[in-house]
Amino acid sequence: MTLEPAEGDVPYHPLYINGEWCDAQEERRFLVTEPATGEPLARVAQASHADVDRAVAAARHAFDKGPWPHTPHYERAHIIHQLAQLVQERSSELAELESRDGGVPIRKTTFNDIPLGLHMIHVFGELARRSPYEPLPWNDFPTVSWNFVWRDPFGVCAQIIPWNYAFCMAVWKIFPALATGNTVVFKPSSLAPLSAIELVRIIDESGLLPRGTVNLITGPGGDVGEYLVGHPKIDKVAFTGSTEVGRKIMGIAAPHIKKVTLELGGKSPSIILPDADLDKAIDGVLFGMFYHAGQLCEAGTRCFVPNSMYDEVIERLVHRTRQLRVGDPLDLATDIGPLISFKQRDTVERYIALGREEGANVVIGGGRPIGEEYERGPFVEPTIFANVKNRSRLAQEEIFGPVFAIIRYDEIGDAIEMANDSIYGLAASVWSEDIQQAIEVAKRLRTGTVGINEHHVLNPYAPFGGHKESGIGREMGVAGMLEYTEPKHIHVDFQRHRSGKIWWDALLPPLDEEA
Ligand code: NAP
Ligand code: MG
């Protein structure tokens, strides 16, 4: 790692403002630890409101006076692809850092998170070439003119991400904003900020962006995050995190009528249809549920199973779950790492107790794994509840941990109704060999993404986001890029003489051009 300057035996990461690494006011810092062991990993600067002011001023200046918003699209695209190349050279180091910092199994970070993040950067580079010009249909009322839409960058964007999927999150915030000519003040989560900080370091070392285009602020969300969101000089807020904080952010952004996009929580359903191939569907819904210990916003945490197959499905889910290895995220053999924090484990354990009180039964897990290797981190067993009622709190509230609720249904229509009976609407999966039927079910689900015979479908060409309280707006794909632009209608009038502007006569008497 090229993390410096070191402080004690862990690296120290300052703030990054206007192209310079700098201490926070009064040199305040906080400690970042490995969830699996509690070992210190790094110290990170804790920004004050004055530091946020400086970062916003730098981004404002870079937007209002700097070259980035006016840099040609092909050039922005070229720079983004060059940055991707630099990220690629650091892939294995980034994977290890992400595993340590977030407790993410190394198989996942090595084969999914970092390569996916890299693919995303290239796709945003490709989308950066998209023309800001959109022709409009011919309009000859009141007479002929040439009309088009020009896409302006939005301005200064405040971007806040959570601790899960941190590297990909950082990528899908920063790069669409850059691709469309915006400038950025970016804040990662205090719980796992390191891969995002490393990404900013790569951007800095490249020297490819004008100063102030990307700025990094670190510190507690309730303080610096909230202050950043409410800053009057911010034009757009892009937030990924909990629905609870998202609600607050919308309120804080309201007085200045800021543009807000929110990617929030979920309680996504996976629906097994009666004709599903269970060899595939059992592993598929478990992948949907227990990937990263269920700490993914679009995790398929409610599974709807036909009554006729219920006992077989439970038995097979239990059998496969028993084979999952909980352990050290840096061990290639580990399937499930620790949770992000002890606080998060308290929450998960409260929900396990609640599920039992609500009358559902634990068919596997429900406790902490036993052994010395589990003593220093917030580990919890993958847990499956059978006979869950969709209206119970276990099936309605986002737990953000490895707790799977299995719900029975009689008719497919009932499964669809229950799947939609949620305040959330982020993602879903449908498991069936009859693709036509699966598409019909997919169309009736009120969610932003549906996987047919697949669950975690993050495709940078596709819009990602939620219905209902899972969010507002979209990220990724063309739809996500457009969220970083303001459409501007430009009208070019073709009348060469005043006499052609007959509609002005409704106010002003016609000119006598002969006189
Ligand atoms: P969180 O508590 O809402 O925090 C998310 C981010 O917001 C962190 O950077 C946090 O900073 C900051 N923050 C906290 N309070 C804030 C406030 N009052 N004003 C401004 N910023 C504030 O969420 P989390 O626990 O980190 O992440 C898990 C949640 O994210 C889950 O609900 C999950 O579903 C959701 N999520 C959604 C998506 C999606 O795309 N829809 C993707 C991933 C995760 P600090 O951590 O430094 O305090
Ligand atoms: Mg949090």
From TrEMBL:
Ranges where the Aldehyde dehydrogenase domain occurs: 21-490
Cleavable signal peptide: none
Family to which the UniProt record says this protein belongs: Belongs to the aldehyde dehydrogenase family.
One example GO MF annotation: oxidoreductase activity, acting on the aldehyde or oxo group of donors, NAD or NADP as acceptor
Name of the protein described by the UniProt record: Aldehyde dehydrogenase
Keywords: Oxidoreductase
Source organism superkingdom: Bacteria
InterPro entries the record matches: Ald_DH/histidinol_DH, Ald_DH_C, Ald_DH_CS_GLU, Ald_DH_N, Aldehyde_DH_dom
Pfam families (UniProt xref): Aldedh (PF00171)
Keyword Oxidoreductase: yes
Active site: 263
